[in-house]
Amino acid sequence: MSIEVRVPTLGESVTEATVATWFKKPGDAVAVDEMLCELETDKVTVEVPSPAAGTLGEIVAAEGETVGVDALLAMIGEGEGAAPAPAAAAAAPAAAPAGEAGQAVDVMVPALGESVSEATVSTWFKQVGDTVAQDEMLCELETDKVSVEVPAPAAGVLAEILAPEGTTVDASAKLAVLSSGGAVAAAPASASAATAAPAAAGKDVEDAPSAKKAMAEAGLNPADVQGTGRDGRVMKHDVAAALAAPKAAAPAAAPAAARAAGDASREERVKMTRLRQTIARRLKDSQNTAAMLTTYNEVDMTEVMALRNEYKAEFEKKHGVRLGFMSFFTKACCHALKEVPEVNAEIDGTDIVYKNYVNMGVAAGTPTGLVVPVINDADAMSFAAIEKAIAEKGRRARDGKLSMDEMQGGTFTISNGGVYGSLMSSPILNPPQSGILGMHKIQDRPMAINGEVVIRPMMYLALSYDHRIVDGKGAVTFLVRVKEALEDPRRLLMDL
C-alpha cells in the first residue's frame, strides 16, 4: 500500500512554499518521522517527516518547485519499492519498525490567562529531531501582554512542529508532537550525497533555490552569507540578514549591484510584536475615548532624600529590600486619592464607579515594551511591603513572567520616566483608569527659599486625568497633596 506525503500546514496567511532540499531519493528506506525534505516559505523553514516506515517511491515535487498547502510531495511504499543502492544501503541505518518510534505526545498551548484567546509563536528553542528532557523549554509564545514558555510534557524526541515561528495559534491549538519512547532516525549519508553541491561551489550542501536567486539579484557572493539551515545551508532569510548587516563603505568604483545592496541595508522592516501592537492600540483608544488633560507641579525632594539616606541601610538590613523613592510616591498618591476619590474612579456607561481601595499600577519598561503590573491594596501596605512588591513585579516583568492577572484591576498608575532621564512629559491614561502620575528626573535647580536663592533637588510632576469626571480643581488638589506629602514626609505618618 502506498502512503502520500503532503505539504503540512505552513502557518496563518502562508499559502505556498518552495521545495528546498530532498534528504532522501527514490528507493531509500525511511523510518517513521524521519525527515524527508525541507520546504522554505517567506518566513520559516519547514521540515517534512515521513508519515510511515517504508521505502520512498516517486518524488512528485522536485527541488526548486513551488507547492501549495496539502500538495502531494511524494509517495511511500510500506515495505516495498526499489531496493536501495549497495553503497547507500551500507551507509544508511536500517529503518525502524513503526512500533519502535515511540508513543506520540501532543504539545498543546498552555493556559494563557483570563480573556486571552490567542498567541503568536515567537521562538522555537528546539528543532525537529532534537532530543528533549521532560519540562525542558520547547518554544516561547507571545500574547498581548506576556510571554509564555512551553515546556516538554515528556522526555523524547521532537518529531513534528505544527506551528512554526510567526504562527498565530488559539488557546487550544496543538504546537508540536513528541515521540516519547523512540528517536527520529538520522538521515543516511546517501541523503547528503544526493544533495551535495558541485565541488566548484566549495560547499558540502546546496543552498535553497530562493536564497540563490536572492543572492544573484543582490550581487552577493555566497561565501559571504552565513547559512542557518540544515548543515549550513543558506536560506532566503540568511540573505536578508546579510543585506541588513552593517557594511564598510563601498569604494567609488563599486558596481551597481553592490550599491543596491548597500541601499537595502539602510532600512529594515520588522513586524510589530503582539505586545507592541496592543500598546499602540490601547494608547490610541485612550486618546480617542477620554477627555484627557495634564496638569503640572514640582516637588522639592530634599526631605525625602534626607530621610531615605538616613534609614536606607537599616531599612535594607531589616526588610531585605532597598528603600527607593517609589514607596514614598505610592504612599503619597494613596493619601491624595482619599481626598480626591474621583481620580481613583472610572466611568462605566453613565455611571461613575468609586473605588474604596487603591490597586496601584506601576509602569515598567521591558525589552519587549511597556507593561503595567498592579500592586493590589497598596493603600493598606507598609513602605517595606510596597518596595518588595515593586521589586518582585519589576523583576518578573523584565523576565516576561508576569501573568495576565497581575496586570489587571489597577485603579491608578504611576509612571517613572525619570529613570530614563526624562525632565518633563505628559503620560497617557491607562484605560479605564482616570488618572496617571508621571514622575521625572530629579535635577538640582536654583529656588527662592525664604527670600534666598538656594540649590534644591527638584522634580516635575505631571498628572494626566480624564476631564469627564475629574475637574481641574480636583486634579490640582491631588498634585498639591502629593507635593505636600513628599516635601514633608511626616504628614504621611500623621495622615495630614
UniProtKB/TrEMBL annotation:
GO terms for molecular function: dihydrolipoyllysine-residue succinyltransferase activity. Its EC number is 2.3.1.61. Keywords: Acyltransferase, Lipoyl, Transferase, Tricarboxylic acid cycle. It is an enzyme of class 2 (transferase). Forms a 24-polypeptide structural core with octahedral symmetry. Part of the 2-oxoglutarate dehydrogenase (OGDH) complex composed of E1 (2-oxoglutarate dehydrogenase), E2 (dihydrolipoamide succinyltransferase) and E3 (dihydrolipoamide dehydrogenase); the complex contains multiple copies of the three enzymatic components (E1, E2 and E3). Residues 206-243 form the Peripheral subunit-binding (PSBD) domain. This is Dihydrolipoyllysine-residue succinyltransferase component of 2-oxoglutarate dehydrogenase complex. E2 component of the 2-oxoglutarate dehydrogenase (OGDH) complex which catalyzes the second step in the conversion of 2-oxoglutarate to succinyl-CoA and CO(2). It holds the Pfam family 2-oxoacid_dh. It comes from Aliiroseovarius halocynthiae. It comes from the Bacteria. Its cofactor is (R)-lipoate. It catalyses: N(6)-[(R)-dihydrolipoyl]-L-lysyl-[protein] + succinyl-CoA = N(6)-[(R)-S(8)-succinyldihydrolipoyl]-L-lysyl-[protein] + CoA. Residues 2-77, 104-179 form the Lipoyl-binding domain. GO terms for cellular component: cytosol; oxoglutarate dehydrogenase complex. Belongs to the 2-oxoacid dehydrogenase family. SUPFAM superfamilies: CoA-dependent acyltransferases (SSF52777), Peripheral subunit-binding domain of 2-oxo acid dehydrogenase complex (SSF47005), Single hybrid motif (SSF51230). One of its GO terms (biological process) is tricarboxylic acid cycle. Pathway: Amino-acid degradation; L-lysine degradation via saccharopine pathway; glutaryl-CoA from L-lysine: step 6/6.
